[in-house]
Design a protein that fits this description.
The protein is an alpha+beta fold. It is built from 7 helices and 6 strands.
Amino acid sequence: MSGSDTSLPAGDPFAGFWRRAGARLIDMILIWVGYIIIALFIWQDLAVEVVVKIPDSGEATNWHIPSPFGMLVVGIAAWAYIAVMESSRLQATLGKRALGIKVCDYNGNRIGLFNASTRSWPLWLPWMINTVAILDLIVGMASLGACLAVAFNGRKQGLHDIFARCLVVKRQAVFSDAPGRSS
């Protein structure tokens, strides 16, 4: 798809890095609060209890940390939340809605579940492979690079957005025919 067969949003409709990072933070908090409630009160296999000894005082305290199975469940839940919400008629997760942005294709239309899954991998895959140290490092660095690309791209797209052929725009963005577009 070349630039001449897409609609272009007018003005500067693209959601910038910090707005997207803020939306991501809101979504992470929602996902983790849900995980903690479920792990502590409903499905105890999602967390393990460890005893932590404080070196200076010698006191021991019990902490709950995610189990490997719990991290896998969090990754799947994060994928489902992100992909379903972004491919819905809302076109955004709750964090994106709170900050007035949405996900769309190059013509401003809603994306499908496959594209939403493709563009969301940097957000959920690191959680799913958290227990494999070197793989976690590699995927974490790739995810970080994919997301940081937003700061250096004219359309403010991360690599994951480019692969999924998506844009993240301000909710009120208006798309118009591109100059020189043939009908």
